[in-house]
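Quick check before the chapter quiz. The format below is the same one you will see on the exam, so make sure you can read both the input and the output lines.
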Amino acid sequence: MVRPYAVKGRKRKKNKTERYDKEEEEEENAGFVEEGEKEGTQKKLKSGVTESDEEKAEAAAEELAGIPVNLSEQQQGNDNNSPGVIFVLEKASLEVAKVGKSYQLLNSEDHANFLRKNNRNPAEYRPDISHQAILNILDSPLNKAGKLRALYVRTEKGVLIEIKPHVRIPRTFKRFAGIMLQLLQKLSISAVGKREKLLRVIKNPVTQYLPVNSRKIGFSHSSEKLVDMHDYVAPLDKDATLVFVVGAMAHGKIECDYIEDFISISGYPLSAAYCITRITNALERKHKIL
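Here is the expected output.
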């Protein structure tokens, strides 16, 4: 029997707008708060995260001190008008999903069965690659000397993240996963007692944050242009801003239309972390940073 009043309407299309942190919503999106402000953080997120999940993520984030390594040099190196070095990590495997009753950052070791059940390849979920690459960049003498101007991470899903050069990223992967979980849900993380945002999700594309006259260099083992990194950077103008684009995935290669020069720096495939080490070592020698 057919219902007389059953009229099917058109399904409403979901508004899939890009989610990113907005400067004017700083207090609302802040990741860390003082004890007197805990009421705001106890609200459940729209994505369905429970208070216990949120508390775990915040507890993991306590290691972010947000103190520059060398404040005077760091400020000089990150001046928007001064030349420096910018790193962009492309195709990073940073994806959050609800596993069981909680939201987690997916990785091949802990979520292999979950990924297989959802017809996904566990080998592609390697957030540890991004963790190692970020640590290598931030720990480098190049950064401590104030030469690192910016660090951007773009995920496989197209989420663009900005990481301040003076952030102290957690050393262990478990704590790092907690930070990324909180960041991708709240869109920003601020230091305790400070309004400065240490990590935040920003609007695409990344090119709008790159200097107009910067030189954008991509790295791929498949490139026919094999170079010695020290010889490559030696003749480059010291006053020019260099943008290095490195893939943070387990397999494949980066394909970005904004890259001006694709090079290979070894006859063997290199991990993202070791590739970054070769880049920073070459630049440190160029600038005589010991």
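If your answer matched, good. The radius of gyration is 21 Å.
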